[in-house]
Structures are given as structure tokens and as C-alpha cells.
Write a structure and sequence with these properties.
Number of strands: 12
Helix content: 10-25%
Structural class: mainly beta
Strand content: over 45%
Largest sheet: 10 strands, antiparallel
Radius of gyration: 20 Å
CATH topology: Porin
Distance between the termini: 24 Å
Order of helices and strands: HEEEEEEEEEEEHE
Length: 213
């Protein structure tokens, strides 16, 4: 699923000119005296796959807002993620459902990296993962309102090997991350910590439709 907004060819060309002027010298090499910040907003949509359960969680559609620094190509931003739902079968037969929220713990950080004529992105997002409305076999688990990872989950999202990122049209970002233990889930804390935490979870995002502001 891709979100797109119609934009005239003239607007796209204008954005390209501004970005090239402000950031082009950055990715090639500019002096601190020439540093400037440019706010660019993108549409974003994707999925995350939880390895331990095999469940797929929708990420978005949402909006990625970034502040690009021309001095070094770095950026900070925000990627708020809407509430989603995870479903899987425990022990292969017992259905489990849960509402999943990614609560931003720190701004997204990253950088545009140019190698020759190729531009890629490295980035890191940090969230607490919160679970609510958990049902096991159709029976509510009553995890309460504060059931979430004890520590923030650090999620890298980078341009995959062999792929590029276009400042205007965007690109694909992917990564692998680890989910730590949960806390404050009432009597379900132990069970959830047996089921969900672990390494090898993946994220796959498509970022598109870059626009100023």
C-alpha cells in the first residue's frame, strides 16, 4: 500500500531545485558557514513482522516530518505510528489478539549519505511498544493500561543494499530490531514475556512524496 498525493510538475521541479541548492553541496561537502536547515515532509507506510509470533503489524499510513541539516546531511524527525492490531496462534492453535501502539521515546535521527551519484539513508527510530486489549482464545487477558516494554525499542531503518533514496520521491527503508521484556501487564506479564520478546524482528517502510513544510 502506497500513499501518494498529487503534485504538479512545476511544484516538484521547484522542490527539486531548492533541495539541490540546499543539500547538494552538503552531500558533496560544504562548509559550516553555508549550513541551513530544510523541513521536508513525507508520506510513510509499511509493516513490522514479529519473529517470535510470526504476526505482521501495520505501520501507518502516517507522515514522516524531517529537518535536514545542510552542514552534514543529518536529519531529525518524527514518525508517529497509528494504533494497529497483531494476531497469531499460540502453540499453533490458540488464537491471540492484541492492540499494538508504538509510542515515540525519542525523535528519529539519521543522515543522507552520498557515494558518487548514489544517495542512501541511515536512520534510527525509538519507541516503547505498548500492548492492550489482549485476548487469548477469545478471553480478555486484562493487561491494564500500562503494559509496555520496560525499555525503549531501538529500530534501525536504512536503505537496503543496492537501493537508493531520492530526496523528492523517497524510497524504501528496512531494518531488524530486538524487542525487550514487558512490564506492568498484571498477571499476563510473565506469559507475554515468554511469547513476544526477542531478536530478528523486521521493519519495512516506504517513504514517498517529499514536500516542503
Amino acid at each position: 500500500m502506497h500513499l501518494t498525493l498529487r503534485r504538479s510538475a512545476g511544484a516538484a521541479a521547484a522542490l527539486a531545485t531548492v533541495l539541490t541548492t540546499v543539500l547538494g553541496s552538503t552531500l558533496i561537502g560544504s562548509s559550516p558557514a553555508q549550513a541551513a536547515t530544510l523541513d521536508v515532509t513525507y508520506d510513510a507506510v509499511g509493516t513490522s513482522t514479529i519473529k517470535s509470533t510470526g504476526s505482521v503489524v501495520d505501520l501507518g499510513p502516517t507522515t514522516l516530518t524531517t529537518a535536514l541539516e545542510s552542514a552534514d546531511g543529518s536529519f531529525t524527525g518524527h514518525l508517529p505510528l497509528p494504533t494497529s492490531t497483531a494476531e497469531f496462534k499460540l502453540a499453533g492453535f490458540l488464537p491471540v489478539q492484541a492492540t499494538v501502539d508504538f509510542i515515540e521515546a525519542a525523535p528519529v535521527t539519521g543522515a543522507l549519505v552520498r557515494s558518487g551519484a548514489t544517495t542512501t539513508v541511515t536512520s534510527t527510530a525509538t519507541y516503547f511498544i505498548k500492548l492492550s486489549h489482549v485476548k487469548i482464545g477469545g478471553i480478555p487477558a486484562f493487561v491494564g493500561n500500562q503494559c509496555r516494554t520496560a525499555a525503549p525499542v531501538v529500530i534501525p531503518a536504512n536503505s537496503p543494499a543496492g537501493q537508493t533514496f531520492n530526496i523528492i520521491s523517497g524510497g524504501r527503508l528496512a531494518g531488524t530490531y530486538t524487542i525487550g521484556s514487558f512490564q506492568n501487564c498484571n498477571l499476563s506479564t510473565g506469559l507475554l514475556n515468554l511469547i513476544v520478546p526477542g531478536a530478528g524482528n523486521t521493519v519495512d517502510l516506504t517513504v514517498s512524496n517529499g514536500r516542503l513544510g
